[in-house]
Amino acid sequence: MPCYRCGARQTDPARGASPWTRGVRHESQVLVCPQCQRIHDWQAELDRCENCDETALVCRLGEVECRRCGHVRAARRTEAESGPEESPELTQEVAAALNRVLGRLTSRG
Ligand SMILES: [Zn+2]
Ligand SMILES: [Zn+2]
Fold first, then answer.
1. Backbone phi, then psi, for 34, in 5-degree steps?
2. Nearest ligand to the C-alpha of residue 21?
3. pTM of the model
4. Among candidate residues 47, 87, 92, the one with its CA nearest the CA of residue 66
5. Which residues surround the ion ligand 2 when the cut-off is CB under 5 Å?
6. Is 45 a domain residue?
7. For residues 29 and 1, what is the distance between their CA atoms, to the nearest angstrom?
8. Which of 19, 52, 57, 94 is the most buried (most CB within 10 A)?
9. CA of 9 to the centre of ligand 1 (A)
10. What pLDDT is stored for residue 20 in this prediction?
11. Displacement of CA 101 from its chain's centroid (Å)
12. pLDDT of the residue at 36
């Protein structure tokens, strides 16, 4: 899983624990690379434990668990997310097709 902010790929640490941080953002598990941890107030963008304010959360099927205090809450899913998942490739194809149609429309006249 790449960094949610910059898309960097996680590399295996030579030894010891990975400097990458896990968190939950908009009810989905995300990873934050060491670079983004340094340059940005990334914790402000992540979901927090409602019990202890920790950002080190783990998102499982339908629930979010705090790794610090163990508090578990049900994951809220918004209406928009409850539908079938779109594949990125398909979305790109649709966007490309739209651009072709729009380009044709605007070039005419
Ligand atoms: Zn990053
Ligand atoms: Zn907690």
1. -55, -35
2. 1
3. 0.62
4. 47
5. 49, 51-52, 54, 66, 68-69, 71
6. yes
7. 9
8. 57
9. 8
10. 92
11. 31
12. 94
Q: How many domains does the chain have?
A: 1
pLDDT at 95: 85
Whose atoms come closest to the Cα of 36: which ligand? 1
Distance 11 CA to ligand 2 centre (A): 28
Percent of the chain whose pLDDT exceeds 90: 48
Distance 12 CA to ligand 2 centre (A): 28
Q: Is residue 67 part of a domain?
A: yes
Domain span holding position 62: 21-83
Report residues of the chain scoring pLDDT below 50: 79-80, 82
On whether residue 62 sits in a domain, the answer given is yes
pLDDT at 79: 45
With H, G, I as helix, E, B as strand and everything else as coil, classify residue 34: helix
* d(C-alpha 5, C-alpha 64), whole Å: 21
In a domain, 108, yes or no: no
Torsion angles phi and psi, residue 84, rounded to 5: -65, 145
